[in-house]
Design goal:
single chain, Aspartate Aminotransferase, domain 2, Aspartate Aminotransferase, domain 1, 15 strands, 2 domains, alpha/beta
């Protein structure tokens, strides 16, 4: 059941709603980026005004205060992920950059002619293109496990590809297109048993799932983005087991990632600092930590039940709407619904929704091979969070109806 009072309390925590007037906007593009609660804005403001020093650079107390706050943010991310130690968490710009670091570093350090990397047809471009590039440079091959008509990864293709003994297996926790939740713990065990490194793209799923307890998991690398977790844009993380950080080459060279430098040699600092050359996104890291505090403070069961109920309500409402076809929908989808409207391009549907002050995503969703495997060129996507309710879905339906009325009338003889 959808609790109106609980949703009202959540909306009161987000300036997007409290400062927007009535009726509040219907923000249904949460799979692209979530809104930021007031506590995150407060943390960002404090970081801008009170923490004036740079990190790891000076002995004056302003720098020391900033360094302590920055490293406390790293520790907060590590605790939230269930990492063995904060040094396993590297701050990056986003999950895309994290995946590029892993793929490029693996290619440089371990990529050999004939190497194989297994991915799925579900991948976001960020977990496909970097591996292809790394394999092209080393003379390897990319194996792709295809999907079934419902959008799930085909288990026969998955096991057949795994039998080819890839050196790396990379896959998403949740599809950013259909919201399908993958059996990643099972996949990781199988990949590890086959001798592969396991890379998890958790960007789309972390906000919907309990902490991954990474120290006891079968994953080797996990990536995520702050902006999909109620945090600010421009900050993300790469978690890696400490043993891998010893062979993974640093992606950037410069200040503060070295222990010693001579005219002809250099010795890198210990992880994680060898991977964070130059001045990092200090402000973003503190905002990210505040977002995780906010997320931790929400009752998990209530949040899960709300999103499940709202997703099911939206599935029923959209499926009953003339001309609307759901794509890959499942009752357990992680707050994401992909759909088409017969005879209308998704961009046009999104424009009519926008006219109703409703935000949805439309297009290839940075997952073109997956969408084509599902038989489409592009899709509409609505995605939900704790501040959404049934009225948002009803307003989306108004936009769809007006789009249909416009285009169907336009094409009448």
């Amino acid at each position: 059941m959808i609790d109106a009072q609980w949703i009202a309390a959540r909306r009161a925590e987000f300036p997007f709603f409290t400062d927007s007037g009535q009726p509040p906007p219907a923000y249904l593009d949460n799979a692209a980026t979530t809104l930021r609660p007031r506590v995150v804005a407060t943390a960002l403001a404090r970081a801008c005004t009170d923490l004036t020093g740079n990190v790891h650079r000076a002995t004056h107390h302003w720098s020391e205060e900033t360094t302590m706050a920055y490293e406390a943010a790293r520790a907060a991310v590590a605790r939230w992920l269930g990492a063995a130690e904060p040094a396993e968490v590297l701050f990056t710009r986003n999950a895309t950059e994290s995946l590029n670091w892993v793929a490029t570093g693996w290619g440089q350090a371990r990529g050999q002619p004939g190497a194989r990397v297994l991915v799925t047809a579900q991948e976001h471009h960020s977990n496909l293109l970097p591996w292809r590039a790394a394999l092209q440079r080393c003379g390897g091959a990319c194996l792709v496990a295809g999907v079934q008509p419902d959008g799930r990864v085909d288990p026969d293709q998955w096991h057949a590809a795994l039998a080819q003994q890839p050196q790396v297996v990379a896959f998403p926790l949740v599809s950013n297109v259909t919201g399908i939740v993958n059996p990643v713990a099972e996949w990781a065990r199988a990949a590890r048993a086959a001798g592969a490194l396991v890379v998890l793209d958790a960007a789309q799923g972390l906000i919907h799932h309990p902490p991954l307890a990474l120290a006891a998991s079968d994953f080797d690398f996990v990536v995520g983005s702050g902006h999909k977790l109620f945090g600010p844009p421009g900050i993300g993380f790469l978690w890696a087991r400490r043993a891998h950080l010893n062979w993974l080459p640093p992606p950037l060279l410069g200040g503060e990632m070295v222990a010693t430098v001579t005219a002809t040699t250099a010795q890198w600092s210990e992880p994680p600092w060898r991977f964070e050359a130059g001045t990092p996104n200090i402000i973003g890291a503190l905002g990210f930590a505040a977002a995780l505090d906010y997320l931790r403070g929400l009752d998990r069961d209530q949040r899960t039940n709300h999103l499940r109920a709202l997703t099911q309500y939206a599935q029923t409402a959209l499926a009953a709407e003339p001309g609307v076809r759901l794509v890959g929908a499942r009752p357990e989808s992680a707050g994401i619904l992909a759909f088409t409207v017969e005879g209308i391009h998704p961009h046009d549907v999104a424009q009519f929704a926008d006219a109703e002050n409703v935000a949805i995503r439309a297009g290839r969703l940075c997952a073109q091979p997956y969408i084509e495997a599902l038989g489409h060129e592009s899709l509409c996507r609505a995605s939900f969070q704790v501040y959404n309710d049934e009225s948002d879905i009803q307003r989306l339906l108004v936009g769809i109806r007006r789009a249909r009325a416009f285009f169907l009338a336009e094409h009448k003889p």
